[in-house]
Amino acid sequence: MNAPLQARSSLFRPASRLAPIGVSEILKITGLATNLKREGKDIIVLGTGEPDFDTPDHVKDAAKRAMDAGATKYTALDGTPELKAAIRLKFMRDNGLDFGLDEITVSAGAKQVLFNAMAATLEAGDEVIIPTPYWVTYADIVLMMGGKPVLVPCRESNGFRLAAEDFVRAITPRTRWVMLNSPSNPSGAAYSEADYRPLLDVLMAHPHVWLMVDDIYEHIIYDSFRFATPAALEPSLRERSLTINGVSKAYAMTGWRIGYAGGPSALIRAMAIVQSQSTSCPSSISQAAAIAALDGPAEIVRERCCSFQARRDLVVAALNKIEGVTCRVPEGAFYTFAGCGGLIGRHTPDGQRICSDSDFAEYLLRSVGVAVVPGSAFGLAPYFRISYATSVSELEEACRRIALAARRLT
What we know:
single chain; 410 residues; alpha/beta; four-stranded antiparallel β-sheet; 14 helices; globular
């Protein structure tokens, strides 16, 4: 008599909060590329968002010393005092921001900082303004917390940056945060002080809207661009701003999982509550390594940035030679975001019509073995993202193959 009930209860039922969230297209493409490689196909993957350099030796040495010294226990919940002191000096040195130690949090990557902040602040139905193209995790975290992502397309003619007039139109009484990312994943677009000023004026006119800024690519900028961060440009916004950063990109420490942020102490305390019931403290060894990264020599970061810039120039020049493809020059990060609108509507050699940037990305993977990510995965089509955090030889060959595939379209 109880058997049917018992059978039903054994079936897995996912939480309803996961319903609007799917596996990212980036992971789908990476999975398909991996399967093709496993089959023996020659595949070049240009979708990975991490530096191809190794972690600097002085950082790894600091981790070894920490292990040898027995620093392998739990630490303070949201960062050791020593790491918080190093982060405080970093904010002062690089950004002109002075945070108290109680205004700094450390987590297992910048992604957890984002997660903690949204979990600590969002009520059901609260809105978060997210300019597109955007890193998809922003919107997914908002959805998981019961919030509503408000996606605002950013025009290529405005450098893929949020325009003040579009920002104003997106604000409602339910707006809780606006998310800004500079330099940006996926577009490489960055906001100068002049670019930020109209947006900061909008924020000052709407005191209920808080500002979350993701500066993770701060040190990967090119040419004469000067990095700026909003809380330093407009001190009156400091008490409703969260400035997020980390060691993953600049120091090639993606696997070490250390992100950090500075903001109002009340917000930082609320985020610590979330972290206390999820991961607790970040890795003790990774925190020791992060101190060495932040306090150590900056020359290696600048050298690697020069290498990225040379690769950027190679890829942008090659893409702009392809008929039907356009690519603006990004100010930072290690991505290009190229338009492929001129190829939409064409047909592949086997007669398939290219109807979208997703179709074009799949065509590149299957026909010439190059894995890129369609712009629609980042909320703006028809574009495709290339990560040029790989070798020059692979980039040259990938661009040659993309050009060949485009020429074959009729």
